[in-house]
Amino acid sequence: MHVVFVRGATGSTVATVHRADGVSLQLPGYDRKHKVPHDLAHYATERALEMSGGVFGAIAGGGVFSNMRVVGGKPRHDAAARSKRLLDAHRDTLTMAELLAGVVHRAVEDGSADKTPAMVRDAWRSLGTGPFPWTDDHVEDAVRLLTELTVEWQARGTVRVTWPEHLTAPLPASGGIRRGRRGRT
Questions:
Q1: What is the superkingdom listed in this entry's lineage (predicted)?
Q2: What is the pTM of this model?
């Protein structure tokens, strides 16, 4: 999946997502007050931490958030139902992605990258269960990637990235109505 981040007419970020199924969507940002676009922080954090159930993995898997709009291609006939099922199934990971991307975003925005691994572990403990699933190197990679993308963003006002296919959120099996003939007794 290809994603192009551009500065919108109002100064906010707009990410245009070109999915493998041929559908293109726009994801508006609401971040005029930040030098680092928040959705770019999601991209860097989720990619470095390999979070397939985060924002970009969910979009790659067919998820469409309420603030998005289709700008190209033809969605499947059941796209809305599939999106709902996928987003519902990955709700916890989406919440965690929001929390962790916020920490990484703030670290790059404020220049406090040295404290980020501890801050991410603290954030994880507020929602996560079990042992912390990443190393300090993973967290530092997220900060490094976001820092590099921020330099490009500030220089060009545009960033083009690719979301890896292996980080596409899986669509859970449907629990819908079974149709067809029933056996008679």
A1: Bacteria
A2: 0.91
